[in-house]
Amino acid sequence: MSKPDRDHSSPRRVPTFYEQGAGPEERYPSLHELQLLQNLQWHERRAQRVLAHVERVRSHLRRYSRGAPGTATQGKRREAWCVEMKLRFESLTAAGKFVSRPASNILQAIHSRNRCGSYHWEYFDPARHREESISSAAEMREAQFAAPLHHLRSRAG
Predict the structure, then answer these.
(1) Which terminus of the chain has a smaller tally of CB atoms within 10 A, N or C?
(2) Cα–Cα dist 141/130, whole Å
(3) Closest among 65, 85, 95, 76 to 130, alpha carbons compared
C-alpha cells in the first residue's frame, strides 16, 4: 500500500526568529529596529500624557477641596437644622450620621417637610434659628444620648 499524496497547496509555516538568523541573546529579534523606535516614542508620549493628567487632577483637587487636600466634595455644603432638638449640623452628611441615615434621606425630609430619624429637618438659617452647633463626633454622641430625654421633657410639659 502506498501513502496518499499530501496536499502541498496549504500555506507554509512561518520560520521562527532563530531560523531567520537571530540569536537567543536578542530581546526582541523579530521586531524591526524601526518598530522598536516607534514603540519607545509612543511610550514616552504616553508617560507625558499620564503626567499631564495627574497634574490636572491635583490642581482640580486643590481648587475644589475643603479642609485637607484631597478631600473634594460633590458640591456646596448646606447646613442642616434639627427642629426638635434645636441643633445645627455642618452638613447634611453630619446630620445623616447623627440619625444613622444617608444624607439623601435628610435632604428628602427637608424638601418634603417629613421626618427622618424621628426628627424634622430644615436648612439652617441664622436669622431664624438660634444655634447649638454640633461639629465633633463626641458632641454628636452626647446629643444622641440627650435626644430621648429631650422628647420625654417635651411630651411631659
Answers:
(1) N
(2) 21
(3) 85
Residue 141 near residue 147 (C-beta atoms within 8 A): no
Phi-psi region of 127 (alpha: psi -120 to 50; beta: other; left: phi over 0): alpha
Residue 8 DSSP SS3:
coil
**DSSP letter, residue 12:** P
Measure CA of the first residue to CA of the last residue in the chain; give whole Å: 115
Pairwise CA distance, residues 75 & 114, whole Å: 24
Query: What's this model's pTM, rounded to 2 decimal places?
Result: 0.42
Helix/strand/coil (H, E, C) string of 83-146? CCCCEEECCHHHHHHHCCCCHHHHHHHHHHCCEECCEEEEECCCCCCCCCEECCHHHHHHHHHH
According to DSSP, the residues that pair with 122 across neighbouring strands are 81
Show the cell assigned to 126: 441664622
Q: Report how far residue 144's alpha carbon sits from residue 111's, in angstroms, rounded to the nearest whole number.
A: 24
DSSP state of 72: B
Q: Which residues in the chain land under pLDDT 70?
A: 1-11, 14-32, 65-75, 131-157
